[in-house]
Each structure stands twice: as C-alpha cells, then as structure tokens.
Amino acid sequence: MYLLKVKENKLRNLTVAEALREAIREEMRRDESVFCIGEDIGIKGGWGGAFTVTLGLSEEFGHERILDTPISELGIAGIAVGAALAGMRPIADVEYGDFIFLAMDQLINNAAKLRYMSAGKLKVPMVMRIPVGASGRGAQHAQSLESYFVHVPGLKVVCPSNAYDAKGLLKTAIRDDNPVMFFEHKLLYGAKGRREGIDARGEVPEEEYLLPFGVAEIKREGEDVTVVATLRMVYAALSAAEELEKRGISVEVIDPRTLTPLDLETILKSVHKTNRLIIVHEDNLTGGWGAELATRVTSEAFDWLDVPVTRIAAPDTPVPFAPIMENYFVPNSEDIVRTAASVLGKS
Amino acid sequence: MEKRLPREKLIEMYRKMLRIRHFEDRIYRLFLSGTMPGTIHLSQGQEAIAVGVCANLSKDDIITGTHRSHGEALAKGVSMKSLMAELFARSNGCCKGKGGSMHVGDIDVGMLPAIAIVGGGIPVATGIALAFKMKRLDRVAVSFFGDGASNEGAFHEAINMGAIWDLPVIYVCENNLYGASTHVSKVMKLKDIANRAFSYGIPGVVVDGNDVVAVYEVARKAIDRARKGEGPTLIECKTYHIGGHSRSDPRQYRDKEEEKRWLAKDPIPRMKKKLIATNILSSEKSENIEAAIEKEIDEAIKFAQSSPSPKPEDALRDVFA
Ligand SMILES: Cc1ncc(C[n+]2csc(CCOP(=O)(O)OP(=O)(O)O)c2C)c(N)n1
Ligand SMILES: [Mg+2]
Known about the structure:
Chain A is 38% helix and 18% strand. Chain A is globular. In chain A, helix 4 (73-85) packs parallel to helix 5 and helix 11 (264-274) packs across helix 12 (289-301). Chain A has 14 helices and 14 strands. Chain B is α/β, with parallel strands linked by helices. Chain B has one domain (2-307): Rossmann fold (3-Layer(aba) Sandwich). The longest helix of chain B is centred in the first third of the chain and has 26 residues, at 7-32. The radius of gyration of chain B is 19 Å and the shape is globular. Chain A binds chain B through residues 39-40, 43-47, 68-75, 95, 98-99, 101-102, 136-141, 315-318, 320-329, and chain B through 37-39, 89-90, 95, 97-103, 115-120, 148-149, 151-154, 179-182, 186-188, 251-254, 309-316, 319. The complex binds thiamine diphosphate and magnesium ion. Magnesium ion binds at residues 146-148, 176, 178-179 of chain B. Thiamine diphosphate (TPP) sits between chains B (67-68, 116-118, 145-149, 176, 178-180) and A (39, 71, 73, 95, 99, 102).
C-alpha cells in the first residue's frame, strides 16, 4: 500500500497526509535535531499515527528519531518541551485533538511561558500536531480546539486547509523557534474526506518551498461580501461562493492559514472593498477565534462596515454522535449561503 | 473450582459471554456493510472480564468503561435494544444517539456513558466511590480500562487517592497486550501491571482474564473487601482482543504465533468445554442458548432499525442540568 502511494507521488498531486509526511521527511533529513514523538507513530506494521502521517518514517530514520510513546499525553508534551529547551526540534503528535487537554499544563505553563519567564534567554522550538474536527466519532474525538490556543500568548497557531499549505507551513513550523500548535482537520487528510465530497489534495512542487506565517490567502476574489474561514470551513465557503454567484452575489473567500500571527491586513483590505464580513469556524460560537476577529475588524474598520460582522460557528454544545445531529452541528455551505444572502438583504 | 459455584450461575456466565460475542459478531457485519455509522472497537476475546466482574455487582454499583465497552454494557445490564439503537444512532438508544459506540452506558443500570479518553474513567470511578463513602452507601464503583491506560497520569493519581482514603473502588485493568498498535512491552518495563498497585499500598492481583470463573472469584474478593471499607484493589486481567484495535484492523503489527496462542485460550469455547465435560451443559441446552441469543439480537436489530432518528435540533439539548 505504501509503495503504491510513493508512485502516485510522482504526479505531485498529494493528499494532506502525504504532504505533511513529506515536510517531516525533508526537515528530518535536513536537520538532525528534528524528531517525532507520539503514540503509534512508528510501529512496524502499524498505521503511522492515527492518520498515516508518519507512515514509513521509522524505516528511514529509525526508532530513535520516530519515538513511539506510551499513552501519556502530558509526558509527550512535557518531554517535547524539555527536549526543545535543550536544543532539539520535536514534532509531537496527539492522535485526536481532544486528547490535548491532558497536555495543557505542559503546553501553557511551560511551552508558552518559559521564554517569557527567562526574559528571553530560553526558546522552545517545538511543533504540536493536533487533528481536529467532527468525523462521526462522538463528543470525545471531535472537537475543534484552535481557539483555546489563540488565547495563549507565546503560542503560534497554524491551520492549513490543503496539501500545499500543509507542507509549506509545517516546514516553517519546524524551523520556527517558538512552540507552534499545528491544527490538521481529520476530513482533509485524504480518502475519508473525499468520500464526503471534500478534496484537499493539491499540486505540491518537487522543489523545496516554505510558507510564511501571518500571510492569508485569498482563495476567491469577490465584491459583495468577505468570508473568512479555516480548515474544513474553507471548502464550505468556496462551495457557498459558487452557489451565491449563481444568485448574483460575489463572495471573497479568505483563508488566514495562521491564526497567530493573524494577517489582519488582508482581511481589512477585503472588508474595505466588500463592506461585509462573515467569519466561519467549526469551533463552538462562544469565545471562538471568530469573536476576536470580529472585534478587531469592528474596531479597526467600523466605518467601512455596512452591517455588523456575522459569525457562523458550531452551536455551544459538545459534538453529538448521530450523523444527523453532527451534520446539524457542523456549519455547512447552506448556512453560509443563507447568511450571506441575509447580510446582503437578499434572503 | 466450578463446584463452588451453582450450576445456574456458571451457565448464566457462559450465556452472558456468548451473548456479547454474538452481539459483536453481528454489529461488526452491520458496520462493515455500512449499515451502522461511526467506528467500533470490539471486545471479542475479553468477554470473561466484563461478565466475571459484573456478575458480582448490583444495579446500584457503578462502572466506568472505555472506547471498548459493548461487553461491559451488556454485562452490567444495559438493555440490548437500547445499546443496539445507540449504535444505530437512534433516539431511543441508551444515549439517545448522542454517544455512539465509544460512549455506551446507562446510569439507570449503573454504567456511566463510557469514557473514550484513555484513563479518563479511573478518577471518575474513584470520585463516585468517594461519594458512596461520604454518603455511607453500601455500593462500589468499578473502573474498567486497558493496559495502555495504566501509563496515563490519571491512573496513578486516582489510584493513590483511592488508596489513601480506602475508597470502595475496584480498578480492573484488561491487559490485552496492546494499546492501539503498540505492544505493552514497548511502553512499560514491568511484566505485571498489577505490581503498580504496590506503589500505592493496595493489593494488586493478576488473573487469567480468559477464565470467567477465575475473574469472578478474584473480583468477588476485591469487591467484598471494598464493601467492608478496606479500600481498593487493582486487578490485572491477562487477555487478548481477537480482532485487534478497531474496525477492520489488518493487525500487521501482531505476531501470528501470538494470535494463535491466544485464540487457543478463547474464553468462550474454553468455558463451554468445561461445562460440557462436567455435565453442567448439554449440547442441546447449548444450542437452545445460542438460538435464544440470536433471536434476542434479531429483535434488537429490528427494534433499532425501526426506531426514529433524533431530530437535528436535539443536538442542542442536554448541555446544562
Ligand atoms: C487520552 C487518549 N489518548 C489516546 C487515545 C487514542 N486511543 C484510543 S484507544 C487507544 C489504545 C488504548 O489502549 P488500552 O488502554 O490498552 O485499551 P485497549 O484499546 O487495548 O482496550 C488509544 C491510544 C485516546 N482515546 N485517549
Ligand atoms: Mg490494551
């Protein structure tokens, strides 16, 4: 199975999982201090982590650099912090994002604060990979957690929506001297999402490239309303934009790609043009990063806004199991179509 | 050993194991055919633990389970219909479709919705036991969890606290040799997880987890002890999950010899052989038991499939008390 994938790679049309794997492989070849640490990531005959990202890497780099751990998230995160402080560049993995709560103390009290507490003497160059999003598994394998980390000074927050961004941003994350929380959406990795109609594959160039943090991408230009979305919601926004175009509404879709640092400038420029902003995230509504962005745009660009900034987000509940309820919970393109039409007074 | 237990009890434990086995056989097929949503973790091979432990409990005793808890749910008395309906994501499932396979349970029969954060149920069961003690109730809490869970901080913190306060809680570790794809020998130096009990000053017992009578006896002692106010016990049940971790796991990380060795220790044929050899079970009786189980499963599936789905907006209910 793995060999087949390598052949496909020649076409350079990679899945997100493949793109991430390639980024890790390149960085590990380039820099001896880079290593991976996590559960089930390098087991022979195993799965390469919960989502195949590290599949085959232990064959090239050995089990000393692809470290399989006990089920001990606090340990994984804390040991990554320590190793980073002492000159390594760990890439740590928690299988499903919801398990990151077990590691919060190490990430927030140590990873995020030690540089500050040492008045700039220390640095913690680590990457924490965190799969998020609902995928039919119930409340404890489903949460979108970016907002928890956006709140923490000292952590960078990255959320790529496609294979090209995933590779370029992960390489940058690995080389960054700060702790980077790297969010990956479960339905964007590969086949499972495609079955649900989301294709995050992309052309990934052979030659090396890195993508800078803090640079949003305008996924689609438009005149009437700006939609800012991340991860899976980028696809909902793009399909809504297509639908709205048929109704004569022109939508600009922006993917910030990193939430910390945030490219506010690109968003403001867009709002200057469209005078309307909708923010979409899969995280719960209350206290989500959308609230922060809405406030910033409102205070910086109040005069340009024709209508209040609107947020589309998951309701304030845990993620339900039944697909019919999960579908209701996760914002979709119809929600965006309806909201955009209403924002434009065309509902 | 069987002599000490009444025949009916032995047959009943056999029947309960078989019921779990057949139930999981059926849901596995339903899952593979795409009829059932979500994901599943089967407990096949581990039935003796759920059955042997729960045979000592009453409805008032409370258990916590894991991502792999269909067996514990059935053994604790969650109705098969409501369990099946939950797996089918229907509104009369034991969690009204909000839980799914990884969160089965029904507090009405003394089982919390299973906790799928590895190790997460261990402190919760300890807290339940604390409440039982504070309220002077004659009830115990039992936490079921895997070998992998014993590497989480939650395991160590909770057991130490259960120990210092002599709480009526029993820690049942189902050591099936793997946490997901990782063999236990790669992630702990101890041979017996039960030895971890000694760090906290409580008894740690190793038992053959594929022998339902042995599990029953060990659990009975631990539960009696807990009820008397003498505190927790850590029971390590050595076992194996026949089908591997989850869904259609190709199990390439497992040694085929190891699989064979454990298949020979399958708790269900083993018990059946003993019961037949000691004339407790006849082959006719055994066939009747199987037929009745199949019928119960058919009815549960029919019930589940004809049950209504939740309404989408039901997602908004039950957030606050
Ligand atoms: C805190 C946490 N970390 C990781 C996982 C992912 N995960 C689910 S089951 C599992 C293996 C659990 O092993 P064990 O405790 O031995 O139970 P078993 O699956 O063998 O029954 C893992 C790693 C999880 N659910 N929760
Ligand atoms: Mg296990």
